[in-house]
Known about the structure:
Protein name: 3-dehydroquinate dehydratase
Order of helices and strands: EHHEHEHEEH
Structural class: alpha/beta
Number of helices: 5
CATH topology: Rossmann fold
Organism: Natranaerobius trueperi
Number of domains: 1
CATH class: Alpha Beta
Subunit structure: Homododecamer.
CATH superfamily: Dehydroquinase, class II
Keywords: Amino-acid biosynthesis, Aromatic amino acid biosynthesis, Lyase
Family: Belongs to the type-II 3-dehydroquinase family.
Radius of gyration: 14 Å
Amino acid sequence: MKILVLHGPNLNLLGERETEVYGKVNLDEINNRLKRLGSKYQITIVTLQSNCEGELINFLHKANDEASGVIFNPAAYTHYSIALRDAIAALTIPVVEVHISNIYSRESFRAKSVIAPVTIGQISGFGLESYSLGLKALLNHLDFLREE
């Protein structure tokens, strides 16, 4: 089984920007942690990041043929990208939306996700653990989690 973890704009700057909001952990550390968790469940984790909306859409289209599901942090695109929303709606595989910060406790414009209605669920506000929780939720949805 292969799971795509897709990171949106500015997430390549994790650990450097707004550390009071996003923490000091960088994207490589998040990806490595997810890959270790994937190994525990004997699944392949593929991680990709882009600051470009069109590239994220292309990654989603490709994932539909190559992955069993997607963990997606659309970052700022969460709040207005109808193009990403439509790309997710066209998929036949499940998508979990994740956010490091609690988007509902921040600026009012961040409290709306146009992505969430076309995903199986959203996890936000648990720091880097949001990704691990998202992966576990996706695997549970796919009936893949084994008794621990």
